[in-house]
Specification:
Elements: E1 7-8, E2 20-21, E3 28-29, E4 31-33, E5 40-41, H1 44-54, E6 61-66, E7 70-75, E8 84-88, E9 92-95, H2 126-129, H3 135-142, H4 163-176, H5 178-185, H6 191-196, H7 199-214, H8 224-237, E10 239-241, E11 248-251, E12 259-260, E13 266-270, E14 276-280, E15 291-292, H9 301-311, H10 319-322, E16 347-349, E17 362-364, E18 370-371, H11 373-389, H12 395-405, H13 414-426, H14 443-463, H15 469-491, H16 497-518, H17 526-551
Parallel strand pairs: 12-15
Antiparallel strand pairs: 1-4, 2-3, 4-5, 6-7, 8-14, 9-11, 10-11, 13-14, 16-17, 17-18
Length: 552
C-alpha cells in the first residue's frame, strides 16, 4: 500500500466529521489521509479500497532529518515537471518588516481617514477592522489601555511599528491554536547565528521593548525568549507574498523546511488565496531531495553566497556553488589580464565553495596564471557601480554597457546577462501587452533581440532549468521575435510556406512551454497576465497555421 497510507482521526481545530465526505462511498467521514491531508474516509477499510485510485495524487514527499541539513523533504515517488508536491495555507500572514502603513486586513495602503475603534491601527473601513485576520494585534494592542495613534505625516513611507504585527500574530497562536503554535515552534530560529551578526541584540532593543514596554504585554503572557524565537523564525523562514496590494510575508509550516539549492528541482507559486504551491520544476526521481531556490539564479556565486549567509545563515554547497564554472556558464568569470582577447582566457575561482568571506585566488582557464581575489573583486565592484548608475529604461545605454564591458567580462557574466534580459524585454515590449510594438522593429533590431534571447535561453536552461519564471519570460520574448521576423520574411516572399510553417511550429513549441510555466501563476501577477496573453497568441498562431495548410 505504500509508506504514506494512513489515516488520522484528528480533524483539527473545530472541524466536525459531518463536514467531510468519504472518497470511497460518499458517506460522512471523520478520518483524514495523513499523506495528503485533503482526502477523507469513513473507515480504514474504505481507505484501503480507495488507495489504488488515490495513490497517484497522495503526498509526494516525506519529512527526513540529518545532523547536517536538519529537516528536509524527499520525494516518495517519481514526479514530472509541473506536478504538485505541496499545497499549503500559511500559519501566519503579516506586513513585511519594512513597509508603509497598510490596512491590516486587505493590505491596501492605509491613510488617516479610518482607524480601528478598538485598537487604533489604521484600516480601510469598519469591515476590515472586524476581519478575523486583524484579531491578534487588535486584541493585544487594545489590552494596553489606550488605542494606537500614528502621526499624520507617517503615511506613504516606511513606518517601523508595523514590524511588530507579524510577530504579534505568531505569538497569538499560543493563545488561540495549540496545533499551529506547535508547528511554529518546530521552525529553526537560528539563535546563535543571529547573536553573531547582532540581529538578536537588535531584536531585544526593538521588538522586545515594543511588545513589553509600549504594548505593555507582560512576561507572563509571552516570555522574552518566545518573542526572540518568533523574531528568528520570521527572519529566516518567512516568504514574501506577492499577491496582495502591498507585498506582505507569510509563514508556512512545511514549505519552510524545504531545502535550498541554487540549481533547484522545484518551483514556488502562489494563488490568490495566499496558498503556496510547490511543483516539480524538472523530473524528480523517488528518493531525491526536493529543493527550491532561496536566492536569485541571475546572481553570481559570491552574491548568492553572501545573500544566503546574511539571511539564512548557511553556506550553500550545491553543485553550482561548488563548480568554478557555474555549470559551464562562466557566470562570474572576467577576462584574464595576461591573455589576449583571441586567446579567450577567463578567470575562475580556485575554491568557490568557501563562502562569502573567501579569499581564494582565481586562475585562468587558458594560461593557468593566478590572479588575487582582490583584483577580481575590484574589477567586479567597479563595473557593478557603473551598472547601478546606468540610465533606467534606455536601450542605447544598455547596448553601450554591453559593448564596453564585453572586453572585460565573459559573455555569460551575470552583469551582461542582467542587461541582456532587460534589453530583451525593452526591445519591442512584447510582454507588456501594450500593442504590436515588436512589428515596428527594424530587421536589425529583430535579429539583435533574437540573438540575445537565444544567448539568455542557453544560460537559463543550465542555471534555472524547467519550470522557472526566468525561462518563461525568455521563451515568450523569443517566440514573439521569431514570429515577427518570419512573418516579415514570408510577407515579402523571401521564405516559402514550408519554411514559414516550420518556423511557426518552433514558435508554437516556445509558446506552449511559456504557457505551461505561467499557467500556475494567479492573474494578479504579471506572470499570470502573461499566460493569458500567450494563450491569445497561441490561438492567433493556430489560426495562421490553419490558413497555411489550406493554401497547400
Amino acid at each position: 500500500m505504500g509508506d504514506n497510507m494512513d489515516i488520522d482521526g484528528d480533524m483539527g481545530d473545530g472541524d466536525g466529521g459531518d463536514q467531510f465526505v468519504c472518497a470511497q462511498c460518499g458517506g460522512a467521514a471523520n478520518q483524514r489521509c495523513t499523506g495528503c491531508h485533503i482526502t477523507f474516509y469513513c473507515s480504514r477499510d474504505h481507505q484501503k479500497q480507495h488507495w489504488k485510485k488515490h495513490k497517484s495524487s497522495c503526498c509526494a514527499y516525506k519529512v527526513c532529518s540529518s545532523p547536517e541539513l536538519g529537516r528536509y523533504l524527499v520525494a516518495t515517488r517519481d514526479l514530472k515537471p509541473g506536478e504538485m508536491v505541496i499545497s499549503e495555507t500559511p500559519l501566519v500572514i503579516g506586513p513585511q518588516s519594512v513597509t508603509i502603513p497598510i490596512c491590516l486586513a486587505c493590505y491596501k495602503p492605509a491613510n488617516s481617514k479610518y482607524a480601528c475603534g478598538k485598537c487604533g491601527w489604521p484600516m480601510c473601513n469598519a469591515n476590515c477592522a472586524k476581519s478575523p485576520v486583524h484579531e491578534a494585534e487588535c486584541t493585544l494592542t487594545a489590552a494596553r489601555g489606550a488605542p494606537l495613534q500614528l502621526p499624520p505625516n507617517c503615511y506613504n513611507k516606511p513606518y517601523p511599528i508595523y514590524e511588530v504585527v507579524a510577530i504579534l500574530r505568531c505569538l497569538y497562536l499560543k493563545q488561540t491554536s495549540e496545533a499551529k503554535w506547535k508547528k511554529l515552534k518546530e521552525l529553526e530560529p537560528h539563535e546563535e547565528a543571529r547573536k553573531k551578526n547582532k540581529r538578536y541584540e537588535k531584536d531585544i532593543d526593538t521588538m522586545v521593548r515594543v511588545i513589553q514596554e509600549f504594548l505593555k504585554i507582560p512576561e507572563t503572557v509571552f516570555t522574552t525568549q518566545e518573542i526572540l524565537d518568533v523574531c528568528g523564525v520570521l527572519n529566516v523562514n518567512a516568504h514574501d507574498l506577492p499577491v496582495t496590494p502591498t507585498p506582505v510575508m507569510a509563514l508556512y509550516a512545511n514549505i519552510s523546511i524545504l531545502e535550498h539549492s541554487c540549481i533547484n528541482n522545484a518551483s514556488k507559486h502562489f494563488d490568490g488565496d495566499y496558498r503556496v504551491v510547490i511543483r516539480a520544476a524538472v523530473n524528480i526521481k523517488k528518493g531525491e531531495h526536493i529543493s527550491i531556490n532561496y536566492s536569485d539564479p541571475m546572481w553570481g556565486t559570491s552574491s548568492r553566497q553572501l545573500h544566503l549567509n546574511e539571511t539564512k545563515y548557511f553556506i550553500c554547497k550545491c553543485v553550482r556553488c561548488a563548480d568554478p564554472t557555474e555549470l559551464g556558464t562562466m557566470f562570474s568569470s572576467i577576462q584574464c589580464p595576461q591573455c589576449t582577447a583571441e586567446q579567450g582566457g577567463y578567470l575562475v575561482s580556485t575554491n568557490p565553495g568557501l563562502g562569502p568571506e573567501s579569499q581564494a585566488d582565481w586562475k585562468c582557464i587558458v594560461c593557468q596564471k593566478i590572479q588575487s581575489h582582490t583584483f577580481v573583486n575590484a574589477v567586479t565592484q567597479s563595473i557593478g557601480e557603473e551598472l547601478v548608475r546606468l540610465e533606467k529604461g534606455s536601450v542605447e545605454a544598455c547596448q553601450s554597457f554591453i559593448r564596453k564591458h564585453s572586453q572585460n567580462l565573459h559573455p555569460n557574466h551575470y552583469y551582461l546577462q542582467d542587461i541582456k534580459l532587460a534589453l530583451c524585454q525593452m526591445i519591442g515590449q512584447s510582454a507588456t501587452g501594450q500593442g504590436h510594438e515588436i512589428f515596428n522593429l527594424t530587421e536589425k533590431e529583430l535579429l539583435y533581440k533574437q540573438k540575445i534571447g537565444m544567448e539568455l535561453l542557453e544560460v537559463a536552461n543550465k542555471i534555472s532549468p524547467g519550470i522557472s519564471r526566468l525561462r518563461g519570460v525568455i521563451l515568450y520574448e523569443l517566440q514573439a521575435t521569431l514570429a515577427a521576423y518570419a512573418r516579415r520574411k514570408f510577407s515579402s516572399g523571401e521564405i516559402s510556406s514550408d519554411h514559414m510553417r516550420n518556423v511557426m511550429k518552433e514558435v508554437k513549441k516556445y509558446l506552449l512551454e511559456c504557457i505551461q510555466i505561467f499557467s500556475f501563476e494567479p492573474p494578479c501577477l504579471q506572470e499570470g497576465r502573461l499566460a493569458t496573453i500567450a494563450r491569445l497568441d497561441l490561438l492567433e498562431l493556430e489560426t495562421f497555421l490553419d490558413s497555411l495548410e489550406q493554401k497547400v
